[in-house]
User: Fold these one by one.
Assistant:
Number 1:
Amino acid sequence: MTIMKDAPERTIKDLEGDVHPDWCPGCGDFGVLKSLKEAIVELKIPSHEVLVVSGIGCSSNLPGFIHAYGVHSLHGRAIPVATGALLANHKLRVIAVGGDGDGYGIGIGHCLHAMRRNLNLTYIVMDNEIYGLTTGQTSPTTTEGHKTKSTPRGNVEKPIQPLALALAAGATFVARGFSANQKQLTELMAQAIAHKGFSLIDVFSPCVTFNKINTYQWFKERVYDLDAEQGYDPTDLSAALAKSLEWGERIPLGKLYQVERPVYEDTEPLFRKGPLVDHKLGLDKATFDELLGEST
Amino acid sequence: MATEITVGIAGAAGDGLDRVGDTLARAAARLGLSVFTYNSYQSLIRGGHTWLRLRIGEKKLTNHGDRLDVLIALNQDSIERHVPEVASGGAVLFNTKLECDPDLLPKGVRAVPIPVADLTKDLGRLPPVMQNTAALGALLHLAGLDVEVAAEILHETFRHKGEEIIRQNVGTLRAGYEHAVKTEKPLDFKWKFSRKRRPVVTGNQMIGLGAAAAGCKLYSAYPMSPASSILHWLATHSEKTGIVVKQAEDELAVVNMAIGAGHAGIRAMCATSGGGFALMTEAIGMAGMIEAPVVVVNVMRGGPSTGLPTKTEQGDLNQAFGASQGDFPRVIVAPRDALDCYEATVEAFNIAEEFQLPVILLSDLYLAEHRSTIDADRVSPDVKIERGEWANGTGNGRFRRFRLTKSGVSPRARPGTPGMMFIAGTDEHDERGVLVSDEHTNAAIRRKMHEKRMRKMDEVLKRLPAPKLEGPSKAKVTLVGWGSTHGVLEEAAARLEEDGITANRLHLKYLYPFHGRKVKEILSKCKRTIVVEANYAGQLARHLRAETGIEAKHVVTRYDGEPLDPDYVVQRVKDCVAGRAQDLKVQKAEAREMAYHYIRIHLHDEARPARVSKGAKGRHGEPVFDVELVSRKGKEPRGRLVIGRETGAIHAYEEQGA
Ligand SMILES: Cc1ncc(C[n+]2csc(CCOP(=O)(O)OP(=O)(O)O)c2C)c(N)n1
Ligand code: SF4
Ligand SMILES: [Mg+2]
């Protein structure tokens, strides 16, 4: 990643996509998009060095609304596509985005493995506790008892705790934001993008159309800022785990955890010669003869 | 006639067959001979039965053949199973610890016991696998091959293990050799050695090497037989080849990583077998839609489902055609031999990048795992690398990544380039990548974009060489095959000709897009078209019908897990010509094999099948075989297995005297 100190001043406008988001008015994803742009501007990352990769869902439409490189991939596959792009060119700033269904449902396997792999990847999940694009079915984070289109008698499955999973899987940066707390969210995103290693930000991003339970009001009544918590140490895994499981009357927002651990990119010997995209193609005669010579 | 020998080595998994087979194969290859080996094994890490055949000849060998001249038996079971197959003029080699019942020996076959313990008593305590090396020494004398070359290979193989291990191995080899010199006349094999060293390779290895030569930079994989050896080879050689090797959590991740990497501007490949390929299919369609290059190798094994993990089949042609929803451009290539694996892989990368689409390479277990010599002069790292069109200029932030062009190929830009930002979406989109899928309707853009992508197929077809008829232009039968069976069909055609049935061949490497017009032109002039393929349904025959309207007269299939061999093809073709149906009942040899398995599982390996005869009618609702079992030692009757000839069911085990 390049964080250019003396780069020409970039503004949010430079990141404006030429398509206006077609999310429902009031959708939480607007706030996420705004914070992401602000964070990129704050970090002075040139937009052409950013690759935003998403899956499928309302939230996964985000790459279309930001003027950077983007892949709007398959449902649940944002992370492996992003991983491949990052392995090809680890100078790119790769940011994966998507919904709770995309990341914690169909894509949960990739999500956990990417965390333990500790690639230099940021993953932003717009968690609205519902499947928005498919018009309101239960999601892996849907509250117990919540009546959705697919659970008319109420959801009977226990919602997963993504932040606890992330901590257990070895993510080195774990945070939670709320799309209505714009300032904090921007700050968290900037920290996550600047973090060396895998960063997850789970963002409460209300679906105003299909989730009548987890509304802005519902969150506002419950969330509190971890920064205000006396003596909270974000390098303490057990403390972070306890916070990650806190749910119900009080739900923490902010950075739960951050540590440094070698990133995957540092362990790959071939990366010492620079990003793979810049490597020479093919084999020289001596290497080729040596490889084939092993078989004689 | 060119000299040729087939050596069979039989034992249990863990008996060290691979090492001894490897030494023999490489020794013959260093003498300038042609080698073709095939290992038939089961999904077991230890025990069971493993059967390695090495065909060695002066003339170029294109398949593992169907005969046996010398048997090296590493356990009792192997003697009993395979001795009856040895051809007259051959020999059976075994440690004196074992016994070879003279009644089993076919006429003209010699039993050569080797007193391994006596011969090697001065070499210190040796592990049991050393009996293989002693047998190899004896074989080299009997077969008239050069013991020095084998000694040289053992030196190299064990160099890293120190002098003592080298001394033991080479000492054992020489002890076996000298024992044979003293006690046995050589068999009747006269060789001319060119001593032009030939590499002994597998198809999988050549795919790995081809990928490296083509400039592949990322190989992602999830282990699955028989594709795993590509992973192992590339992982071992990652730094030399410059390919980053990443094992991922599943095949979904594997293929999506490769596509992400291709999108970002490098060459990436992944390989799997049918089950993994099934998981990859949605993403293969994505590659077609976002116009990202990717090479996906499907090394087929017996299906359906988990199927036959260690057996071969050509059963995934339909899957390759049907992989993923909707129409999108894709290319399907089936290499015919190990050398072709190299060339086809290089070509696959070029096509994938030039046309920005997924290329599927269809190999199979037979091609992936058999080892054969290749002519080192015919492979070179000096390959053409064509990366296709790249957009230049700044694009001013309004780059049309999916620009409508005549060829369907739109110049691409590498993410990271200033001013060329775009979005690649799996939803239908316009030239700039902006989605049209959520507009009320945009039939025009949809049509234009779809046509643009599909136009690439015409361009690819123009580039692919059209298939040609091989052999005489006029023939009684025309054998049509695809992929790995090329060598088998070549030899089968030659043998048919000797038997008075002239045969020519049409072999298809490029299955999609397909040279339908050309194939139709060729086949409509052929008298009797016989499609030969290793699957149940005749998947190529169906494809031929779809693409040319030609219905093959016959389809010869094989789906029992064993590879096609020349004899099998010759017999089936003769059946076709004579209007006979193939006999699909359980065969005697198959009943015997089932008895061995029964003995291993239920009788602790303490018996062996003796006579197999047609049993009495009536009791089991189908004709049966009676397999008499006798004790290993002393040949006392142990009992009788009754095996159904229609169903293969083991109806009863009747214990002697019970
Ligand atoms: C393989 C596959 N299965 C199902 C779908 C249908 N689908 C599209 S989006 C989606 C769920 C989206 O939920 P979420 O990821 O939470 O995103 P949101 O719309 O809530 O932002 C589903 C099931 C699909 N596109 N692909
Ligand atoms: S359906 Fe829900 S998630 Fe989708 S755009 Fe509307 S408010 Fe947002
Ligand atoms: Mg959702």
Number 2:
Amino acid sequence: MSSYRTPELARSLISILKALNVDHVMLGKDELCCGSILLRLGLRSEALEVAQRTLDELARVQASTLVTHCPGCLRTFKLDYPELFDFKLSLEMVHSTQLILRCLDSKELSPVKIKAAYLDPCHLGRHLKVYDEPRKLLSLIPGLTIIEPPEKREASLCCGAGGGVKSCLEELSLTVAKELIEYFRLLGAEAVVTACPFCYYNLNEASRGALRIVDILQVVDASLRGVPVEKLG
Amino acid sequence: MKNWVEELRSATLKAIADESRRTALRRAVESYTSNKGKALSRLPHLSDLALDVRRIKETSVERMEDLVKEASEAIADCNGHAHIVRNAQEARKIVSEIVGEHKLVVKSKSLTCEEIELREYLEDKARCRILETDLGEFIIQLRGEKPTHIINPSIHVPREEVAKTFSRLAGRKISGDVEALVSFARSYLRDYFIKADVGISGANAVAAQTGTIFVVENEGNARFSTNAPPVHVCVVGFEKVVPALNHAFKVVEVLPAYATGVLMSSYVSMITGPSKTADIEKKLVYGVHGPKELHVVFLDNGRSEMAKHPVLKEALYCIKCGGCLYECPVYRVLSGTFGHNYFGGIGSVWTAYTRGFEKALFAYMCTGCGRCRELCPLKIDTPRLVEALRGELCRLGFKHPKATLFFDNICLQGNPWGEPKALRGSLGC
Ligand code: SF4
């Protein structure tokens, strides 16, 4: 998702990993879709085929940790494939926010002055139960004010892009996203921070400037580099 | 004829464009969530009790057929009539035989009756007059519409529209004030309860050991319909049967807070056999103030099949509180378009087994966000069910064309959109 639809997020992740001196490799052009979309739409055996190829790729690069920013990919590797196909990946699998938090040490962080609401992405929160690390990470950024909406964590609202709906029923996705944006606007948020390329992409498309939508990677990248989010390029 | 993919899309577009429906939904969701929040904070034990109910359901579903037999025998023992039917057609036929032709019937809300389209059948084939007595059902019956929520069937109709509908029926102007609307319904329906030949209801639970049926409600219409007419027919799905009274009580304790945000429903009717007395010389006579005849129709209609599916059987545990619908971001936009008699993700599984898989294609509307699972009292894993159902749909030829396209693209270019492979490598590292 990030490589094609939200390259700015992929760039931010790489820039952060470099700033934090994380030894990393990208699968690059050999990288394959995780197959999540196939699973969600009911194509199990096809997903298995794709998964097998990705596993081979991962074995080839001999990494100790698999990091993804897309919570959907992470869920697919970490929960779905082991459950459905009895796959056991020997490497550790983490979300970008978990890795960043671990490697941040005492890096100097510049202020990012936004009053934003954090949206728990469905795959990251409810499905993977990662609620705290993104919040912890955001709390370290000076100048950032985070609003906690009443419907948060287990009860957080959905951006409308999941389950293949973005692809199969685009208008439905956008309408769900618009309702969510209105909800955040009424809370008095100036922006929404999410931690998922699908939320980021869909909310941006639906918002059309009604509310600023940023990703946590952009906030961290901006803070590490000391530039405003909109200047990240 | 449009293909199903286009049909799904045009239904979605139509629902999205309906502003009045969204207004009504927003009002309903707001009041539901605030009431439920208050109720749950005053009943902190309910979440644990609900998990108990889940365990009861799990074991009951395993021996559904036996429990239905046990319940039937217990009902017969207290002079009621039990009928075990396999499909919708058999159910309609038997109810129609019991009711007879040209009868006046008062009916309380029942998803199971809706599932077998009982009202339409009795109206068309037996030329009966059927009055829906639940206020929401009454409204949509008058409007010639279909229910859009399992607990609150007229959730999509704002008060202004209800006033128009009632004014037409009354032949005079009824104000849009909610109290005035309720009072009109009360006075209109009152006589019919007394005059009716038959009362039809569903049930929320059945205790097999004693043959007791439990009917939970707030309005008092179900109590009236099951009590005033001389004959009561109850149509209930196999999955509602639990072993004994104490299990049924647990179901009934959990249901109200999640269904309507109350601590307890106004009325729980427990019915064990027809009305009876032995006050005169100890001679047993049936039908004193309540019905003389009680018929309980146990409906399979796909439930045994569902129970055989390793994943989808979980849907049978659902107590039909409707909470997950109010909480569903997609339902909040689509309401009754997100389903067919049964709504939302959980409803797609129910629709597949009770009406046919080809009717369950609204499963593709679910975003799999999982909010329903967290907020469901029984923690039913609806996203998992929806994915498994989509798997079945694919096998039956209802593979979404996008899915096929994505797979082909992934094989060719490594990504679902078919973008050139090289792009991925171009980000630099
Ligand atoms: S799935 Fe759960 S929340 Fe939804 S209607 Fe059934 S019991 Fe209620």
